[in-house]
Amino acid sequence: MNKTKTVRTIKSLRAQMNDWRLSEQKTALVPTMGSLHDGHLSLVKLAKKKADRVVVSIFVNPTQFAPNEDFDTYPREEKRDRDKLQNLETDLIFAPSRKQMYAEDFSTRVTVDEISTGLCGASRPHFFGGVATVVCKLLLQALPTMAIFGEKDYQQLLVIKRMVRDLDIPVSIIGGPIIRESDGLAMSSRNKYLTSKERLTAPLLHATLTQIANSVQAGKPLAAQIRSAKSRLKKQGFDVDYLEARNTDNLRPEKQYIPGKTRLFAAAYLGRTRLIDNLLVK
Ligand code: AMP
Questions:
Q1: Per-residue pLDDT tens over the stretch 117-149
Q2: 5-176 sits in which CATH class?
Q3: Which residue, judged by its Cα, is nearest atom 17 of ligand 1?
Q4: Which residues contact 224 (CB under 8 A, 6 or more apart)?
Q5: Are 178 and 150 in contact (CB under 8 A)?
Q6: pLDDT for residue 1 is more than 90
Q7: What is the mean pLDDT of the chain?
Q8: Which residues are catalytic?
Q9: Domain 189-281 falls under CATH 3.30.1300.10
Q10: Does 153 sit in the ligand 1 pocket, CB within 6 Å?
Q11: Angle, CA of 188, 190 and 193, to the nearest 5°
Q12: pTM of the predicted model, to two decimals?
């Protein structure tokens, strides 16, 4: 087994990507903030199926955190991450420093209108600008054939697709399905923040989305189902940020259920942990 190499500079990333491009190998980039779990690893496995070479970036991006958010406490476990990526025979890890990514007088920000405005964009107004900026940089640094993102962060996936289309960035964007714990909780690096009591409650977020989906598929009205689901979540101890039905292609609000087009989106706090999830109603 070859040893997975870690590079920390844009120059060495580009040199390796250039070599692979010259030998006509397809490359896939999987951007992450590290603290890797099976959700991340599923994207690496998908990348390995689709490309000859797989690069995983690990960078806790400061520009997508607001000052009151968890940038300082966000889990950082690079050694363990490197072992996991080695086990999957990942070709390259790009783990740049903050200085490598952002000059002290860095002053450019990519904003993606419309699709970024509701849902997580409403409660975290800084977030998608930070994500779009760092992903734009990573795509231009690596210029991979494709980049893979999880549907767990579905709005983020659409924001990135829109940015790449609008800015003519020559990279295909591919989504991978949400990976869940056996009790339905969507895997997330932030699940580590949950107390053992909160961890028992957390799967109810996905269970609630599933209940709404089943009810509307059985003909019950969407708006009423969402209203009662919100009050159930509150009783169970969640502080609900949003629970909404949106069109899966453009995120426009859906008043009525359209099979295969309506996607349910939820964000809710359990204590200090913000959980997000989404579900396509087939
Ligand atoms: P993060 O490290 O949280 O920035 O996530 C890096 C990538 O992994 C993003 O594209 C996420 O959407 C994806 N991801 C995170 N959790 C999951 C999950 N449970 N299933 C699938 N993809 C995920």
A1: 999 999 999 999 999 999 999 999 999 999 999
A2: alpha beta
A3: 39
A4: none
A5: yes
A6: no
A7: 97
A8: 40
A9: yes
A10: yes
A11: 135
A12: 0.98
